[in-house]
User: Fold these one by one.
Assistant:
Number 1:
Amino acid sequence: MKLDPATIARLAEHLENCELQGRDTPKITDDHPEMDWDDAYAIQDEIRRRKIARNARIVGFKAGLTSHAKMKQMGVSTPCFGFLADCFALAEGGECKVSELIHPKVEPEIAFVTKRALQGPGCHIGAVLAATDFVMPAMEVIDSRYRDFKFDLKSVVADNTSAARFVVGGRALPVGDVDLRTVGIVLEKNGEPVAFGAGAAVLGHPAAAVAMLANHLGARGEAIPAGSLILSGGITEAVAVQAGDSLALRVQGMGSVGMRFL
Ligand code: 0L1
Ligand code: MG
């Protein structure tokens, strides 16, 4: 690690305040170009610790930048991982307040809910499918705290991978009842289809993203607990939204999930 504990705590407080106050900031590597991956995840961990200290519950995890479309959109080549707190969750069909956010975008995703703990190293798609209770359609609202989306991957990891809000809905299916590689999705904005894809856009199979997450956590001495909700990553590019927009995600055989931006 290159940053001292006081700097990590200060950067975590700064980024979390930006999140809570809906204001942007230059990317933190501008002032700390020496920052390494351990520093980036330590800042994210400190944000998680701050939320838990205020009685937030950690309900799961997210994988980000798991599709080629997202990697190309963001100019990066590796996935990243973050956590999900209960305060990020929106009701199905509910409202997302744009005034609380900076520049939100929506990603169509497949959510996994685990019935058994998963821990790397050596976690693979088969282990993920065996440990999955059910899968559901999900939309993630990402909201990078970095001004004009100008960031690098370490800054993004420190910023909890732009996590802001999420909604799950539709049909909760046993994972054996759907082929997550070929399942088709349509994302609609104000009734118009704006993005299309299939599950295989996420690392060939969305469960591969969950396996990567388990291996990432295992390398840090952590696991995915039973009962976790995991967002496996955007199947398409993220779609920018503004107040007044209605978004719906339709997933073949799994129903739909929606939300409105106010
Ligand atoms: O969920 C994600 O794919 C996170 C992406 C992080 C970068 C961004 O803000 O687009
Ligand atoms: Mg995402």
Number 2:
Amino acid sequence: MTTTKKTGGLAGIVAGQTAISSAGGAHELRYRGYSIYDLAANCCFEEVAYLIVYGHLPTQQELDSYKKRLRTLRDIPDDLKSVLELVPAYAHPMDVLRTATSFLGNLEPEQDARDHYAITDRLVAAYPAMLLYWWHFSQNGGKRITCVTDADGVADHFLTLLHGKKPSPLFTKMMNISLILYAEHEFNASTFTGRVITSTLPDFYSPVVGAIGALRGPLHGGANEAAMELIEKFETAKEADKGVRGMLERKELIMGFGHRVYTTADPRNIVIKKCAKELADAMGDTTLYPVSEAIEKVMWDEKKLFPNLDFYSASTYHLMGIPTPLFTPIFVMSRITGWAAHFIEQRGNNKLIRPGADYTGPGALDFVPMDKRTGKVA
Ligand code: COA
């Protein structure tokens, strides 16, 4: 790792190597060499999940058997359901997923018969149920849903569990695209957190739990929820323009804008913005999309900041009837693929990740016995 004393937050520092994805430039993101534009235009989520986790685009036969395997892994154990019933309704769904992942790691630990690939498939398949069993139980007066559906893939399975009915083809398509865009992103904060944990050689669930914690914050995955809260404040484009200018004057952060890696645009935004527009047109929305565009314009005019994936994901999800607290957990449902690929890659060529630090505390001090202590810094 190259270091410079002036760099905060490891910005600009190359902290390792990966063959899983490459991000950079204004419009470039590739998963294992393939452009996200091609993947989002041509694939279902499972095709991309397979590519990321298993390293190559699946043949039709590989894809069919992968999807079939995932369908058999959707239901969650009764003991996990009992734990989910104990989690209060006011809990954040990200905390629910963190707990559920950890508890599943107790029920179905990693061992010879259940390796990291098996655990990855299990989590990809079971996250919709882990999230939505709790959601319906806690929000709908103790309603216990059936966690199995006959949906083809993760996208329509999730929407079916959430809404209790088969989604429209348009919603399924949008959900697939969104899951593809969120699946992987090089050494982002949650992936790097998980790689650090993996480097100490724990079980496979531990880095996933840590990564969920890192993803939860509004500077990372939590930005899609925060973006929705902002967009919803305004009823017209004019109001949004005025409101955001005021926020910038007060030096407030506008969630869903800016990025550590991209300088002038987030390539994923190009795709998700089209989805938001298509959905807005289909649903007859005359507020969310114009308000979002107004915010985008102010941010570019005033700060030269551009929307990242989280910004238009917010209205895309909202227009599909997805409650805002579930936005970041959807990120988990998808990013589990990228995380898993990174943790497996880390295990394949492991070295403990343990950087150094510049010490800024006091010099050597004489020990102070209890009766001489003042309670103040020396
Ligand atoms: N709203 C307002 N100002 C922003 C901003 C935002 N979303 N993002 C960056 N800026 C400003 C910073 O305040 C800073 O201004 P300054 O130089 O006057 O202090 C400047 O742009 C550089 O930002 P910085 O925070 O140093 O960049 P970073 O690389 O450390 O941060 C993010 C990257 C993503 C954390 C940051 O852009 C951000 O907080 N965005 C909002 C949260 C978000 O959308 N996260 C999801 C990322 S995919």
